[in-house]
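[recover] target loaded
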């Protein structure tokens, strides 16, 4: 057996214990760790064809895995104007005006990352951005990616001039006279206008995706749980994989939307396990609600605007039936559930599926932004994975609860924000992710946010719910051993061990001793996927 890669002089960090392994070197064969030992013994396994890298005392961890991201839609969305750094309406208008001046006549303006907090007490509507967008077809995605603001010209080109009815909890927000305000809630409404805009070519989509994935590898990611298979996603993954250009291992969960019939459900079941060498379809993604910021979450009591009172599925019992059918087929599910009522119903659905027997299936709930005490222990009791995105709390809410999310919920529910610590202490398996493009994908930033819970743009601000912070070791586990367990891969991933995948991340120093606020700046020296370097710093 050949040994194409040997890594020497490393400190091998074990996320199970937080300590370093006694070995300092490893060898890789056929995408797996084939040997662990001291430098001399492992170097002896190399031949003239082996790549030998001296890591000079750097720290190696199991490959970091993002527990929730959207590679294809993210690559497309982030191609436009980034508004995430705009803290008020004046800054948004200024950024849009610069972009408009650079547009060709008739061209569409695409932007992303718009924070609803910039609107203050005003409604989120296109009117607030006039006259900057007068005559310009524009689509401005809000940071939650569940809503967007469309300019009057974009609505006109799409033929949207009033309310519509959808099979899911989507809405074209209109004024008292029935005229669209420009705010579109959830995918079905957004797609009506998106379809009117010119679409990128397949080649453009592939190039943008490849660039985004290379950036992820350079940030230290070796894997990701991709929470959609929309559009050309699967074809693009297959093309990059076949060409040897897929630098991140992907586990893909296609969507099951309200109204999916028996044939559609059967197709999702049959699709499981399909894929290539570095990607495969595993699980099904469902939505139990939308988001708190745009009033489409499902809460047990309405928000301050009387909104967030309904499930995404018009008939929640139909969702429960789908969970049961997928469970009986051995298909794991991942349910987007942000509000307390949505989380409770998702847990109830899993409990009902488990009561009927069947196979050992690892279901998960995504986001879990606000939940009461009586739901915490049920995650461990039911074996439901808690998939959390701590940087959403850091960057989209405020410690003093003056942000849109907190104001909508009120003090009691806002004080239950992103209960990572409570879920962890209750015995739940907590997996960490970014939900990119909602938040940046660099995993060190995600782990840092789980520890400090402060705005990444201003670390001097007070933390939001510091009592919910994770330790440095827990944050590392959330992107290694826990991510592997969530995927059912703990027998071959999440640890540095002989026989495990050679998916590895090498850092300039110990992420467990780096201060949380300094962790995002810790250099990533090497990323290895399936025994192949996908990123290598010039220092090694």
């Amino acid at each position: 057996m050949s040994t194409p890669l040997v890594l020497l002089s490393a400190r091998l960090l074990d996320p199970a214990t937080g300590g370093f392994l006694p070995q300092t070197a490893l060898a890789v064969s056929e995408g797996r760790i084939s040997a662990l030992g001291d430098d001399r013994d492992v170097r002896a396994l190399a031949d003239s064809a082996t790549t030998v890298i001296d890591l000079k005392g750097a720290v190696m961890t199991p490959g970091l895995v993002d527990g929730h991201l959207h590679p294809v839609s993210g690559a497309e969305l982030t191609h436009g104007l980034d508004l995430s750094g705009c803290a008020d309406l004046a800054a948004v208008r200024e950024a849009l005006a610069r972009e408009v001046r650079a547009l060709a006549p008739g061209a569409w303006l695409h932007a992303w990352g718009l924070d609803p907090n910039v609107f203050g007490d005003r409604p989120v509507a296109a009117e607030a951005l006039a006259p900057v967008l007068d005559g310009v077809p524009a689509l401005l995605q809000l940071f939650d990616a569940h809503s967007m603001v469309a300019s009057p010209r974009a609505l006109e080109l799409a033929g949207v001039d009033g309310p519509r009815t959808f099979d899911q909890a989507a809405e074209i927000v209109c004024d008292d006279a029935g005229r669209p305000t420009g705010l579109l809630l959830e995918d079905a409404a957004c797609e009506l206008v998106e379809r009117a805009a010119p679409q990128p070519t397949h080649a453009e989509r592939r190039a943008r995706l490849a660039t985004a994935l290379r950036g992820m590898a350079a940030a230290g990611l070796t894997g990701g749980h991709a929470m959609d298979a929309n559009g050309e996603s699967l074809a693009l993954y297959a093309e990059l994989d076949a060409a040897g250009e897929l630098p991140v291992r992907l586990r893909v969960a296609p969507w099951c939307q309200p109204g999916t019939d028996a044939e559609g459900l059967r197709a999702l079941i049959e699709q499981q396990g399909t894929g290539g060498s570095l990607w495969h379809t595993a699980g099904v993604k469902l939505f139990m609600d939308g988001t708190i910021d745009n009033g489409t979450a499902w809460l047990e009591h309405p928000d301050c605007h009387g909104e967030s009172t309904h499930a995404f599925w018009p008939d929640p019992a139909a969702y429960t039936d789908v969970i049961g059918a997928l469970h009986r087929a051995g298909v794991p599910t991942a349910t987007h559930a942000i509000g307390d009522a949505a989380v409770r119903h998702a847990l109830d659905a899993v409990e009902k599926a488990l009561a009927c027997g069947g196979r050992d299936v690892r279901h998960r709930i995504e986001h879990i932004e606000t939940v009461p005490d009586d739901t915490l222990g049920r995650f461990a009791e039911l074996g439901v994975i808690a998939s959390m995105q701590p940087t959403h709390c850091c960057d989209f809410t405020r410690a003093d609860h003056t942000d849109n999310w907190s104001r909508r919920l009120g003090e009691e529910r806002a004080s239950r924000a992103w209960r990572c610590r409570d879920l962890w202490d209750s015995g739940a398996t907590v997996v960490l992710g970014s939900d990119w493009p909602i938040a940046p994908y660099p995993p060190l930033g995600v782990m840092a946010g789980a520890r400090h819970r402060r705005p990444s743009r201003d670390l001097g601000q007070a933390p939001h719910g510091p009592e919910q912070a994770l330790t440095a070791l827990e944050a590392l586990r959330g992107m290694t051993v826990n991510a592997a367990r969530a995927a059912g891969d703990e027998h071959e991933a999440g640890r540095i061990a002989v026989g495990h995948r050679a998916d590895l991340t090498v850092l300039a120093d110990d992420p467990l001793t780096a201060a949380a606020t300094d962790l995002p700046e810790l250099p990533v020296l090497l990323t290895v996927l399936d025994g192949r370097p996908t990123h290598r710093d010039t220092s090694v």
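[recover] notes: The mean pLDDT is 95.
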